[in-house]
Every structure is written in C-alpha cells, then in structure tokens.
Write a structure and sequence with these properties.
heterodimer; A: 287 residues; alpha/beta; elongated; B: 438 residues; 20 helices
Chain lengths: 287, 438
C-alpha cells in the first residue's frame, strides 16, 4: 500500500488538537471550580419592577424604545412570582449581553402598604434566584409607580444580606408615590414614616433618580407631585446622590410615563451603561 | 444503486438554478475561506470567551491596544467577507444564470447587486442605527436570499435580454450597444426589485436575521422533549443547507437561559452533570452531538476527502479548510466544495445530526454519558465540545469519537456518489463544449 501524503495533515491536526486539549483540560477544571466567583462579573443587569395592577409585560414598549436606538441589544428575561413564591421564567439572557433587562412581576400586584411588604418578599425570592444563576456583582434597579416603593422597602429590609456579593449601583424610580396619594407632606403615611425611620439601612454608594410626571401643576393625573417629592426625606443626605426631575408635556400621565421619550432618554443616560471599553470586548459578531 | 442515485442527483443538478449555484459558490470559495480564517482567529484569540485567549491568559500577555488592533482587523475582515457575502453571491448568481442562456452576464450581475442593496436598504432604513451594509440580507448566513435575487434577475435577462457572445476586445461602441441592450431587462428587474423593496419597507420586515428565527431558536433552546428536538433539527439543518445559517449559528452562541442556568446550578452543586433536571435540552444535544460544532458533517467530509486521495483540486479545498473546520469555522468548505444547496448533501446534512442526537439521547438515558451543561469556550473543536461540556468526562469523549467515526462511515457512500456525479457532469460538459466548438 503506498503512503497517502494527506496522513501528515491529519496527524498534524491531531497533534494541534492534543496540544490544545491538554492545557484546555487543566484550564477547564480550574475554571469550573472558580466559576462561582469569577463568572459573569461583567454582567450588570437592569432589574425592573412594575407598579400596582401591572404585569411583567408593562415595560414592553419602553424596552422596544430603549433597544431601538442603542447599538447593544438588551435581552429580556421576565420573572413572575406567584403568591406561593413560585417563580416562572420567560425569555433568555443573551450570552454576550452584559446588560440584560430582567423584569420581576407579581401575581398579586395589588396596591397598599401591606401588599408592598409582601411584594418586597417576593422580589427578594426572585432576586435570590437570580443571584444564584447569574453571578453579577452589581446591578441597576428601575421601578415604576409602586415598583419604586417595593425597591425601597427591599433595600431597607433585604439588601444587606447580599453584602459583599452584589451591589445596587443606581435606582431610578418613576412616578413613585412615596407618600401614597397624600398631597401634604406634613401628613406622613405609615409607609413614608417607616421608610424615613429605616433610611440608615440604605446603601451609601447608591445613586437615586426620582422622576415625576407633570400633567398639570401638581400631579401626573394620579400621583401628586408632592408625594413623589417626599422621596427626598428618605434618600437625601443618605445615599451618595439623589436627583429629582419632573417631566412635562405630552405623555406626562402617570401611566404614559414609561414610554415617554424624555423618560426613555433619562433612563438611557443615567441608568444604562454608557459604551465603554469592556463592553466592546463582550460584543461579538453573530456570524 | 450508487449509479442510480448518481443519475438522479445529476438530473437535479443539471437544472439551471442548481448549475448556476454550483458555479457561483465555487467562484466565491476564496472569499469564504478567507472569512473562515479570520473567524477562526476572532473566535480563538480576539474574543473574551475565546479558547486560546482564555487558556493562555492572553488578557495579561497581549497589550490592550494590540488586542484591539487584532479585534479590529479580524472583525473588519469578517464584515467585508461574510458580512456582505450576499453582494458577491447575487452578482455571480445573476451572471452565471444569464451566462447559461448566452445573455449579457455582467450587466445582469450589476443589476442584481443594485436590487439586493436596495432591499437591504429597505430592511434597515426604519432603524436609527441602520445602514445598507448592516442588513442581515447581505450576510453569508442568509446567502439563499441573494442567490434567489440573482437567479430572478438572470431569468429576466434570459427572457428579455438580447443574445450576447463575449468578444475579446471591446470597443466603446460595442460597450455602448451592450448597455442599451441591457436597458429593458435591467429596468424590468429593477421594477420588480423596487416593488420587493417597498414590500420589505412597508412591512418593516427585517427579512432575515436571528430575530426572524427567534421562535425556532427559543424553542430549541428550551425544549427538553426529544421528539421536538428532532423536528427542530430537521428544520434548522434544512435551513442551513439552503443557505440560511442564522438558526444554527445562534444555537452555538446564546446558551444562557433559565434552563441552562438551572442545569448549571445543579451541576455545580453536585460536582457533576449526571443528575441535572433538563437532560435533553435541544440546543445542547444539537450543538454537542448533532452537528458537533460542525465536525459531524463538514470535518468528517474533509477527513474522507483527504483519506480518499483521488482528486487533487478537491483535496486542496479540503486541506485549506482543515484547520478552520476543526475549530468550528466551517463555512469555507460549505461554500467551496460546495455543500450548500448541493442536492447530494441534503439528506446527509439532515439525517446524520438526527442519528447522532438519537444515539446521544439514548446514551444519556442509559447513563453511559453525562449531560453537556458546563460552559464552552468559543472556538472549541467540535469533537471536544462534549468533553468540555461535561467537565472532562472521558466516556463522553470516547462516545463522541465513536460517533465521529460512524459519521465518516455514513458519509462514505455519499462521497462516492458525488464522485460519480462529478465524473458524469464533467464528461457531459466536455461534450457540450466540444459541440459548441465544432
């Protein structure tokens, strides 16, 4: 049998594969062990919580708007927490997406302080599961209406258990009624009083942005501007920075706020990561 | 039997559509191979998840600016080869189609490029960041569309164009005559193209990109039902064969969802992946065993061609593609041989992954091999995906190698038939050329 000269090419390939496989094997074993700490350290999700009576579908329009004009397409994962704290997931976090949107909604999405406490517990169940599956060391939070109250309650009561594991970098609340529908800030509701009482538990390095809608001179149609403004009693001089903004013009209604163009712009500017060096590294051509 | 099959395939391949496709793809082989090598470099070295990048800790070795320069070059070269592959494909497709009917081929090619770019503009002009060249239509992963556009223009030239025979020296007068002769077919095809573009624009069809197939992709990523996996495999491998590679590509890429996360959590807790909740996840089965990162068909064909050692031209293509194909960058061979849209490779492209998946699912069911759940680096050689995906399980590696040998054995008769077809085709073409000469 005469020798096939192609054997040398196949042998060469085999050699290359073996030479690569050995260090790969060592690396893989080490990597899989250390994965818990290392992996996903660049991941910085934006976790969104809708307000009362709204589901995880509440932000679809907002997300479309945010994705429309950004180079990086944010993938979306939705988690609904049932009354029994069972989680149901939908959507996928893209492998190369360092800033996915995660929306956490609740089967019981009713209004009221008692429900907000419950919803904060459910939020924590979902958050704990996220921490387990995706090892992000920081994240951004967004809450529309009561969603902002749920985040605030969660920050004061649950956040500390993740100390050292992850941190909330920024919180943006939109039309959040820190004093419910009370127009006079001298009349503090039980909730606002509790928030103010526990404010020392808020993280020192957090930046908070509170947006309100101005349909007329004193409310967004539902939430009084003074109730949104009451957020200053909780955050001001407590967190690193507290910024309050009022959006007026078209679509400044309470329920239109999430798809208001100025709001979208503000979210993009203050909440989302601005294109920087490492983001380019993570972005890959999908071919 | 082989002879019968060869005659049947020959009949299909004699159809002008397939004839023009064969010529187009063979012509574009160098571009596809070039792209494959840059893809290989990008995947291995210039991706944060790249195999070589991670294993050798290039993060610390290569200075940042050098790394970005490499990223820029490899990405840029992929853009101009794979990213706008459709432009080249539709040009040559229209050209060769018109050529078959002895019409003015070059102007047909140009007309089809205009139409394709217009459709591409139509599909991106609604987006703010959109530009003509970023469209999915132009990418190699949707080359089928550009081939159809090219064929359509070629046919319009066939029906309306004037007879044209190439001459060696062209005077301005002849060229002017050519341009006038091409006016009618060019206008007619452009009108069709404009209507097509309007439809695309009005419906805001992104025509083709990963999102268009997100339904298939998300199904395959989340299904744990082996029957559904098989059906989806048929769909995805068929699309890949006709030249719509998006669904297959995205399976290899985005593997991070609630299901894989749960699998991974369990695997990390128990230190192995034997008892994960989702054992038959579609994406994992297809990528690790079905297409084996491109190894089960493309690399197997290369190995066969090299072992067979009887056709120097084909062997050269196989040799050039050996390295990229081994690391999962297989488009060079798929275009160069070609495998895309070659009727003979349709059945094997669909059946072999299914056989692999069924065998792997059986082996997982009988606990011969664990489940692939651990993360895989980019550019991991196809044969090693299951090994690394199981955190280095030796029986998984052994099983995959056996599977690979089986795939080679199954492809053996196919390559034989292909040789026969090529032989017959050559003698037939020889006869036509002789007939033309006399």
């Amino acid at each position: 049998m005469h020798k096939n000269p192609n054997f040398k090419w196949l042998m060469l390939l085999l050699l290359i594969l073996l030479l690569l496989a050995v260090p790969s094997y060592v690396w893989m074993k080490k990597e899989n062990n250390a994965r818990a700490q290392r992996s996903k350290s660049q991941l910085s999700p934006v976790i969104m919580v809708p307000g009362s009576s709204a589901t995880t579908e509440r932000f679809n329009e907002l997300i479309d708007l945010l994705n429309q004009s950004s180079e990086n397409h944010h993938s979306v994962m939705k988690i609904t927490v049932s009354r029994e704290s069972k989680l149901s997931y939908s959507g996928t976090i893209g492998k190369n997406d360092l800033e996915p949107f995660i929306i956490i909604g609740f089967a019981n999405n009713k209004d009221g302080y008692a429900n907000i406490k419950k919803q904060a517990t459910w939020l924590d169940t979902a958050f704990d599961s996220l921490m387990h599956n995706y090892k992000f060391n920081n994240f951004k939070a967004f809450g529309h209406s009561n969603g902002g109250l749920i985040w605030t309650y969660w920050l004061e009561h649950y956040y500390s258990q993740y100390n050292g594991e992850t941190k909330m970098k920024r919180l943006l609340t939109l039309g959040t009624p820190y004093n419910f529908t009370e127009t006079n800030t001298d009349n503090r509701t039980q909730m606002l009083a509790d928030f103010v009482k526990n404010r020392s538990k808020l993280p020192k390095n957090l930046r908070v942005y509170s947006l309100s809608g101005g349909k007329d001179y004193d409310s967004d149609g539902i939430v009084p501007e003074s109730s949104v403004a009451a957020g200053k009693f909780i955050f001001q001089n407590q967190v690193k920075a507290y910024t309050a903004m009022t959006v007026t013009g078209k679509e400044a209604d309470h329920s239109d706020l999430p798809q208001n163009k100025q709001v979208v712009q503000t979210i993009r500017q203050y909440l989302l990561h601005q294109s920087r060096k490492f983001e380019n590294k993570g972005k890959d051509i999908q071919k | 039997m082989l002879d019968y099959a060869a005659r049947f395939i020959l009949k299909i391949r004699s159809n002008p559509f397939f004839r023009a496709i064969q010529r187009t793809l063979v012509m574009l082989m160098p571009i596809a191979v070039l792209g494959s090598y840059f893809k290989l470099i990008l995947d291995l070295i210039f991706s944060p998840e790249g195999m070589v990048y991670n294993i050798f800790g290039l993060d610390k070795i290569i200075p940042d600016h050098l790394w970005y320069a490499g990223l820029f070059v490899s990405r840029g070269m992929i853009e101009v080869t794979f990213g706008v592959f459709g432009v080249y494909a539709c040009f040559f497709m229209a050209r060769y189609t018109a050529h078959i009917y002895h019409k003015d081929a070059t102007l047909a090619g140009l007309t089809s490029v205009i139409i394709l770019l217009f459709c591409s503009y139509g599909s991106t002009s609604g987006q703010r960041s959109g530009n003509v060249y970023s469209s999915g239509i132009l990418q190699i992963n949707s080359v089928f569309i550009s081939l159809v556009v090219g064929y359509m223009v070629g046919q319009v030239f066939h029906l309306l164009g004037k007879e044209y025979l190439p001459v060696k020296v062209e005077s301005t007068k002849i060229i002017r005559q050519r341009a006038w002769d091409a006016l009618l077919p060019a206008m007619v095809s452009l009108s069709i193209g404009i209507i097509l573009g309007i439809i695309i624009y009005e419906l805001q069809l992104k025509v083709i990109n990963s999102a268009s197939f997100s339904e298939i992709v998300s199904r395959v990523q989340t299904t744990n039902n082996i029957g559904e996996v098989i059906i989806l495999t048929i769909v995805i491998t068929f699309l890949n064969w006709i030249g719509i590679g998006f669904p297959l590509r995205s399976i290899g890429e985005s593997l991070n969802n609630a299901y894989t996360a749960e699998n991974m959590t369990v695997a990390f807790q128990h230190g192995s992946s034997w008892n994960v909740p989702y054992k038959f996840l579609g994406s994992s089965l297809i990528n690790s065993y079905g297409v084996m990162g491109g190894a089960s068909i493309l690399l197997a064909i290369i190995v066969l061609l090299l072992l067979q050692h009887n056709n120097p031209e084909i062997e050269a293509i196989a040799k050039v593609n050996l390295l990229p194909a081994a690391f999962g960058s297989t488009i060079g061979l798929a275009v160069g041989l070609p495998i895309l849209l070659d009727p003979i490779f349709l059945l094997p492209s669909m059946l072999i992954p299914i056989i692999n998946i069924l065998l792997a699912a059986g082996a997982i069911y009988f606990r011969l091999i664990p489940v692939c759940v651990y993360p895989i680096l980019k550019g991991t050689p196809g044969i090693l995906i299951s090994f690394f995906g199981t955190n280095g399980n030796w029986s998984a590696l052994f099983f995959t190698i056996l599977l690979f040998i089986l795939d080679i054995a199954m492809l053996w008769p196919i390559i034989k038939i292909n040789d026969l077809v090529n032989l017959k085709l050559r003698s037939k073409e020889g006869r036509t050329i002789n007939a033309q000469k006399s």
